[in-house]
Every structure is written in C-alpha cells, then in structure tokens.
C-alpha cells in the first residue's frame, strides 16, 4: 500500500504522540506533527528518526492550532515534502472546568477556539488536498459530548458541536470520509489534571471520585489503543477509502464492535 501523508495535531503527548508512532511504525506512513510544546515535539522527531528508523518520515510544526500560520505551514510541508496530504487526525484539545455561571467568557472562547474553530479552519484549509486524494479526516471527540458532567459545559459543548460538524461535513463532502472518535478515559495528562485539580476547578465530588477510582483500579485506557484506531482509519485514505465509507459522518467509540478490524492486536 502506498505511504500516506497524515497531519496530526496535539502530537507531542498522549493520544497524539501515540498516533504518530502508530502511523509510522505500524502503517509506514509520513506525518506532519503539530504541537505547542517544542521540547516534546523535537524529542518525538528524534525518537522516530533514531529508534524507528524513520528518517524522512516526519516533519514538525511548533505552534498553536488556533494560529493560521501553523495550519498553513503544516499543510505546505506535507505537500512540499511528500507531494500530497491524505489525512488529518485532529487531536489537539483543551479542558476547561467550571460551572456555566463561574467560567469566564474568555475561557469559553478559548475552549471553542481550540476544540472547535481550529478544526473548522483545518477542514477548510485541507479540503482541496483531501478531496483530490480520497482523504480521511478523523477528529478526537469525547463521551462528554453526549453525557453531562458537572462543571464541564465549555468542554462538553465544544465536543457536541464537533460531532455535528463531522456529520455535516461528511454530508456535504462525500469524497472525504469524516469520523469523530470517542477515545475513552485515557491515561493522559488531561486525566492527571482532572485528578489533581478537578475539584478546585469546579467538578463535584461524586464525578471526581469516578475518575480517581478508574485510575486507582488501573482501568484507564492506554493511549496507544485509541491511537491505533485513529491511525488505522487515517491510513484508509486513497485505495482503501471504500472500506470505511459507511462510517463517514458518525460518532463512534474506539471500542465499538464496528472498529474491531482497526484495533491494535
């Protein structure tokens, strides 16, 4: 299968980092990785080139996904280096915790800028390449899009909006497969933030205790599990696009039975 060129946001840690590794190690693809965290992103590039023997398989762009420059540079690097862009994994996200009444409006706007409007912009900027190459656009959503959590209104509504964006995008652009994935409760820095700061940020005790319990009982999902799903779906761009056409526009959990062929063995 021809190597694909995939853009990954939020690539330096957690699910994003794991997705980059799966894309290159398992699927032999090329990746443009975006992150604000320069040190971690450079370390990831070195790991790919040295430990995975992936020299020439990764390009990096340091910056915030809300910046026009960052998105433009990432797409340009993919096209200039590998001649195309086949897929996008929109993983970058931010969690704002606080009640509707107590969350500052600027924090609401930041949540929407990162979790929603940056993805709208990424769709618009990548669309020409994706249509040309029978591309795949996979967004990382959340169970919070359909389940209420006290103090999570800003985060939850951005993910609900993202799911409807995915559905509408798929309807409007049938040549591109667009899917939203619920990654589960994953062992990432976001979960660490919830455990350590969730209560003081505005969560209630019963819901906070659930996350603590998942951690203590070792029931958090390993990042490489949903990351493999994301990487497998993105790798279906081009000649394998028909195998996932029926999933376009849907919001699916990483462990949904329909995902069995995309799971990590």
From TrEMBL:
Asked if Hydrolase is a keyword of the record, the answer is no
By what name is this protein known? NAD(P)-binding protein
Keyword set includes NADP: yes
Q: Which UniProt keywords apply?
A: NADP, Oxidoreductase
Gene Ontology molecular function: oxidoreductase activity, acting on NAD(P)H, oxygen as acceptor
What the entry lists under InterPro entries is as follows: NAD(P)-bd_dom_sf, Sc_DH/Rdtase_CS, SDR_fam
Looking up PANTHER family in the UniProt record yields: BENZIL REDUCTASE, BENZIL REDUCTASE ((S)-BENZOIN FORMING) IRC24
**Highest taxon in the source lineage:** Eukaryota
Family membership, please give it.
Belongs to the short-chain dehydrogenases/reductases (SDR) family.
């Amino acid at each position: 299968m021809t190597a694909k060129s995939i853009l990954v946001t939020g690539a330096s840690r957690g699910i994003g980092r794991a997705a980059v590794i799966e894309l290159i190690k398992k699927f032999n693809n090329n990746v443009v990785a975006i992150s604000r965290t320069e040190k971690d992103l450079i370390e990831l590039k070195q790991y790919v080139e040295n430990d995975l023997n992936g020299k020439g398989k990764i390009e990096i762009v340091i910056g915030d996904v809300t910046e026009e420059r960052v998105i433009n540079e990432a797409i340009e690097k993919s096209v200039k280096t590998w001649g195309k862009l086949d897929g996008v994994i929109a993983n970058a996200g931010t969690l704002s915790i606080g009640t509707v009444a107590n969350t500052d409006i600027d924090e609401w706007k930041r949540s929407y800028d990162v979790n929603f409007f940056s993805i709208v912009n990424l769709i618009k900027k990548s669309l020409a390449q994706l249509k040309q190459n029978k591309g795949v656009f996979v967004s990382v959503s959340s169970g919070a899009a359909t389940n209420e959590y006290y103090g999570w209104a800003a985060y939850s509504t951005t993910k609900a909006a993202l799911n409807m964006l995915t559905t509408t995008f798929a309807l409007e652009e049938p040549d591109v497969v667009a899917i939203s994935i619920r990654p589960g409760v994953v062992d990432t820095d976001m979960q660490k933030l919830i455990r350590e700061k969730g209560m003081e940020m505005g969560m209630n005790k019963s819901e906070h205790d659930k996350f603590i319990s998942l951690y203590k009982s070792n029931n958090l999902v390993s990042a490489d599990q949903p990351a493999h799903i994301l990487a497998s779906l993105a790798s279906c761009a081009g000649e394998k696009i028909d195998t996932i056409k029926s999933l376009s526009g849907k919001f699916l959990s990483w462990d949904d039975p329909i995902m069995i062929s995309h799971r990590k063995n």
